[in-house]
Amino acid sequence: MERNALLDHIFWHTLTGAHAQHASGSGGARRYNEGFSPIVAFADPARPDFDALAAVCAPGLSFYCDSWAGAAPPGWRIDAESTMFRMVWSGPAPAADPAPDAVPLQPQHAAQALELAGLCKPGPFGLRTIELGDYFGYFDGERLMAMAGERLRAPGLCEISGVCTHPDYQGRGLAKRLIGKLIHRHRQRGDTSFLHVMRSNDAHQLYLRMGFEDYLESVVRVISREDI
C-alpha cells in the first residue's frame, strides 16, 4: 500500500480530528479524556512535547503512546515497551454482511465490554471506549461472548479495534465474523479498514491470512508521569 500521511500518524489525526471532542490537550500533545481509551499522541513523536502533555496528565496515570522511542524526560517513566503492526485490509470486499445477527453495543453494555477487554487484553480500553465508534457483539443470554468495533479514524480510514472473544467461546469464528461485518460497513461508506496487533500476538498471522497486510511496525510504550 502507498504511504498515507493520515495513516502514518493516525493517533494524532484522530485526537485532533474526529475525536477532538473526546480529547484534551493543546500544542503538541493530546490524550483521550478520562473514561475513554488511555492513549496519548504527540504532534511530532521525534520531538515530543511533554510539557503540553503534563498539563493534562495527572501523576500516576498510565497511557499508551505510539511511535515515540526517545529517552524519558525528567518526571516521566516508561513502564513497558513493545512493537506493534499497523495492518490495512487489502482483500476483497465481503459480498454481504457476515454477521447480520450481531448486536449493536449500547451504553448499557459498557461494563460487560470493559470486563471482556480486561480478560482478553486487546489493547487500551476504557468504560466509554464503545462510544468512539460502532461496536457489535454476540451474547449467550446476558453474557457477552465476543465483540469488535471502531476506534481511530480519519477521512477515508477507520480502525477495527477491541476484538475479543471470551475463552469459553473461542473456536466458533465469532470475532472473524464481527471483523468481516466492520469491513463490509467500511467498504460501503468508502473507508479503508485497518487495525493494530502486537508483534508478539499470534493473531498477526491470522489477520494476514484473512486479507490484511502490514503497513508499518512501530514502537508502542506505556508511560506514566511520576509524582515528584
From TrEMBL:
Domain of life according to the entry: Bacteria
Annotated GO MF terms: acyltransferase activity, transferring groups other than amino-acyl groups
Annotated N-acetyltransferase domain residues: 100-228
Keyword presence, Lyase: no
Pfam family, one: FR47
Annotated signal peptide: none
Keywords: Acyltransferase, Transferase
Keyword Protease: no
UniProt cross-references to InterPro entries, sorted A to Z: Acyl_CoA_acyltransferase, GCN5-like_dom, GNAT_dom, YpeA/RimI_acetyltransf
Protein name per the record: GNAT family N-acetyltransferase
Species assigned in the record: Rugamonas rivuli
Native organism taxonomy: Bacteria, Pseudomonadati, Pseudomonadota, Betaproteobacteria, Burkholderiales
